[in-house]
Design goal:
This protein is an alpha+beta fold. The protein has four helices and four strands; from the N terminus they run βααββαβα. It has a single domain, classed as 2-Layer Sandwich (Alpha-Beta Plaits).
């Protein structure tokens, strides 16, 4: 299932993790393992924030997704199912048939 992962890093932890190389390594390792179809990085509410869109093959992978961000970056995460335009179209068509 396609998921959107939002990772929000506290400023102080972000500063330290950039200086010691933890932030880029954590993000690179996640991207190598889960191969997101898109990744965006923004400043949101004064925090370094990343958005990753990737396929979660199995719910038992959730700890593998989350723990490196929790442990390495003291990050808050949100993991949300997501659809692209084709998924939305197919879902609406299916829902209309099921009525």
């Amino acid at each position: 299932m396609r998921m959107m992962l939002k990772v929000s890093i506290p400023v102080e932890t972000g500063n330290k993790s950039i200086a010691d190389g933890t932030l880029p390594k954590t993000v690179t390792d996640f991207m190598a393992k889960f191969k997101p179809e898109a990744a965006y990085f923004v400043a949101e509410a004064g925090r370094r924030t990343g958005y990753f869109f990737f396929d979660l093959a199995d719910p038992t992978d959730i700890p593998s997704v989350a723990e490196s961000f929790f442990m390495n970056l003291n990050a808050a995460i949100e993991l949300t199912p997501a659809m692209n335009a084709a998924d939305m179209k197919a879902g609406i068509e299916k829902a209309m048939k099921d009525r």
